[in-house]
Amino acid sequence: LSPTGTLALLGALLWAPWRALDGAPLAELSGDQDFQLFLHKNLEFTRKIKGDVGTLQHAVCETFQLCKEEELLLVRQDLGIPQAPLEQCHRRTFQADACFSQIRDGLRTYQGSLAAVLKLLPGHAGLVETLQLDAANLSSNIQQQMEDLGLATVTYPTEGPGPLPTFSSSFRHQVGGFFILANFQRFLETAYRALRHLTRL
User: Fold this and answer.
1) pTM over 0.70
2) Spatial distance between the Cα atoms of 106 and 112, rounded to a whole number of angstroms
């Protein structure tokens, strides 16, 4: 295949649902080495970010004794902490352009939300700021790769993620920080599975 033909074939496969992708021969995608390199680099990047979020979750647990999500669900309902959507990255509904767009947008949302965690854990300011920078860089990487592949950039309406909620007490701020990190960790796990799936085609 010519480079143009390979890219067209890759684009067609990426637009298919995961179920269809599961049957695609690896050889059809392995020719695009830049795309595979992008996936592997950003899998490692996502794993690093997940580890840093886990470190901050541990800090919240140790500092504020907020460790179990099920014990805080009632408070969560009142806080309005947004969960960035990633439904386009799940197996049954997978669309590469939409999934990448949601990962990109979600990373930007959490980059902003981490400001609440920064205020909550001043002793971990360096790690939080690194996490914000990493989220911004990964979002930019994905945007650039979408442009390089000629994938459509999808912009979803921002329903929830707007200004950070105003916490009326220090306890609610602590719980808010807990759920921002818990939501971010879930988001990263889904994004990681989506990227990993594409490396295995």
Assistant:
1) yes
2) 10
